[in-house]
Structure formats: C-alpha cells, structure tokens
Amino acid sequence: MYTVDTTPIITTAVEALSSVASLEGLSHQHRSGHPLPSGQILKEIIEISRSILFPGFYGAPLIDMGTLPYHLGVSVQRLYELLCDQIYAGLCFGNSDLPQRERAEEYASHIISRLPELRRVLSTDVHANYDGDPAAESYGEIISCYPAIKALVNYRLAHEIHLLGVPLIPRMMTEMAHSETGIDIHPAAQIGEYFSIDHGTGVVIGATCIIGDHVKLYQGVTLGAKSFPLDADGNPIKGIPRHPILQDNVIVYSNATILGRITIGEGSVIGANLWVTEDMEPNTKVYKKTVASK
What we know:
43% of the residues lie in helices and 11% in strands. The protein has helices at 7-18, 20-23, 39-53, 68-94, 101-131, 139-145, 147-163, 169-181; strands spanning 184-185, 190-191, 196-198, 204-205, 210-211, 216-218, 222-224, 245-246, 251-252, 257-259, 263-264, 269-270, 275-276, 285-286. α3 (39-53) crosses α8, α4 crosses α5 (101-131) and α5 (101-131) packs antiparallel against α7.
C-alpha cells in the first residue's frame, strides 16, 4: 500500500510534460489512418532481405537448388507486403496529407525489382572483403561473420529506398546496422562496387560522401564534415555537399579522419591516425613517420 498521496505530484508532472512549449519538435502528432514506421517490422525486413540476398547463410538453413525457388517466392512475397506497409508509414510520416496507398505499392515493387542488382553489387563487396583480408578462409565466412557485409546489406537496401524519397525508414535501417556492427553509413551516401571495410568498428560515412569502386577503409575511419556554414539567422545551412569524395582504389587506414568537401584522388593511400582536410592528387600517399626510440 502506498502511504503518500502522489496525485498532486503526478498531476504537476503530467501538466509540465504536456505543455506545448516543452514538446516543440519532440513529439509526433498521430493522425487517424497515418501509421508510424515500426522498428520491429523493419528489423524483419532486414532479416528477410539478407535471407533472399544470401540464401542458406541467413533464414532457412535447409534449402537446396530444388527448393530454392519456393523459399525465395515465399520470402519475396513477404518482403513486398512488409515494404508496402513500412513505405506507406514513411510517406505518412513525411506528409501531412494521406498519401495514396498505390504510391507505396509502386515503390515496394521497384525495390523488389532491384533485388537481383543488389545481390550483384553485394557480391562484389563480398569479393573485396575476402580478397582484402588474408585471415578470411571462405566467402561464406565473409557473408556470415563480417560486420561490413551486414552493414552494407542495410545500407544498399536503405539507399534504394532513400532514392525514392521515402522519409525516415532508410535512416532507421542504417542505424540498425550501426547498433549491430558499429559501422555508421548514412543512407544518402553514394558508394561504388567492391567496397570493403576491415574490422569496421567506428567507421563513419556521412550523407554527402561519394565513394568510388575498389575503395577500402579500416576501423575508426571518419568521412565527415567540417563545421557547418550558417545562414543570416545563424542556423546551419543544410542540404549542401559537405563530405569527402573518394575516387577509385583509395585505401584509408585505421582512425584516419577526412573532413569537408575534398577529393581524394584515385589510387591514393592515407595512413593511420591522420587528419586530412585538403584535396589529394591521384596516387598520393600520406602517412606519419615513426621515429625509433633509443
């Protein structure tokens, strides 16, 4: 039994928590017929997508080529239905007017049609991560164990949804990979083929990054922005290119920080623990020299 009358305390707290001033920008007003994206369902979308893109490594373990079309058919149909609902929820979140359901179905159909190409591109990432790590013993090990591939499945799927202009859910999907792997890739970033991330923990890739083919990053690399320019009212100007461009065949070693809209030329190598804020010509190598102690 409670002996203290908490009614006044609760009433005061609820009034303060319900005030418009305290809620500005921190709440989302639900409207009838406007669902919100579901983190749990998006997690299922990721799990199903991984099982479709890499059958046997994710999802049902007991499949063979004879039963594969059946398993894929069931999974793709389920994925389409979930995508319809979540894309619809994303469109509702981003628009005060109720979007047409047909638009969400059109977008979901487009994503399904892109799955073969997504698998092809992800296969190049698998090859790159295998070729770039002498400790890797098989492609299966790369697919099953390496955080880079898990993060790239989320990113490449989220990027396709981002390109359609669907709000919120692409970022939710890449943040799920961030939590799972320690790799933070914004869904708006543009990343080419044969992309590899060794170890992965602490890698950050900003929204306006452009990364070419055959690029390799090590753990702790940041592809970020310098301080934002401000408008006349002192607010950060958004929507401008502010992250690096890495051309083909660039290697960036662990804990290097590359900031601003600069270009790292093709074939360049950036050593560990460096701070880079200026353009680099193609085939340039920068690194810290170590001096042996006596």
